[in-house]
Structure formats: C-alpha cells, structure tokens
C-alpha cells in the first residue's frame, strides 16, 4: 500500500509539473499572439491614416479642378451671351 501511495504521489507531481508547463506555454503563446495582433492592428491603423490623408489630398485636387472647369464653362457661357448681345446691339 505504501508503494501505491508513493506511485500516486509521483504521478501527481508529474501531472502537476506537466500542467504548469502547459499553462506557461499557453500564457506565452497568448502573449505572442497578442503582440502579433497588436502589431497587425497598428499597421492597419497606419495604412488607414495614410489612405485618409491621400484621399483628402485627392479630394482637394478634384474640388479645385472641378471649380476651374465650372469657371471655364461659366465664363464661356457669359462670353457667348455677351457676344450675342453686342452683335444685336
């Protein structure tokens, strides 16, 4: 009976050690994954910020070009109206 208790205690110590090792591995893996995803998230946020800045710049350029186009078309229309009015006058 004494040998049986010894064997059970030894097995229990072995299982406890394995469990502690497994918990440490899980904790380390969790930390590694957390860092990996934090890094990925930082890259995505940076890409999004760069995209936003680039898009705002393109929108400003498009707005300027559109304003110039409208001014050109409007000027042409007013010039034609002025010519028609002066040829009749």
Give a concise summary.
About 100% of the residues lie in helices and about 0% in strands. The chain is mainly α and about 90 residues long.
The major beta sheet can be summarized as: none
**Number of separate strands:** 0
Low-confidence stretches: none
How many H/I helical runs? Answer: 1
Tertiary shape: rod-shaped
Give the termini distance in whole angstroms: 128 Å
Rg is 38 Å
- Mean pLDDT, to the nearest integer, reads 88
Number of domains: 1
- Percent of residues in helices: over 70%
Strand content: under 5%
Broad structural category? mainly alpha
Q: H/E series, N to C?
A: H
Keywords: Coiled coil
Give a verbal description of the structure:
The model has no long low-confidence stretch (mean pLDDT 88). This protein is an all-alpha fold. It contains 1 helix and no strands. It is rod-shaped. The protein has one domain (22-84).
Secondary structure elements and their pairing?
Layout: H1 2-88
Keywords: Coiled coil
Coiled coil: 12-39
Provide keyphrases for this structure.
single chain, 89 residues, mainly alpha, 98% helix, 0% strand, rod-shaped
């Amino acid at each position: 009976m004494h040998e049986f208790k010894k064997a059970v205690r030894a097995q229990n110590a072995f299982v406890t050690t394995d469990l502690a090792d497994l918990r440490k591995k899980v904790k380390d893996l969790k930390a590694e994954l957390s860092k990996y995803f934090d890094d990925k998230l930082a890259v995505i946020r940076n890409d999004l910020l760069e995209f936003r800045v680039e898009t705002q710049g393109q929108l400003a350029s498009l707005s300027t070009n559109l304003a110039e186009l409208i001014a050109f078309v409007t000027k042409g229309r007013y010039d034609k109206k002025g010519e028609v009015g002066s040829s009749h006058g």
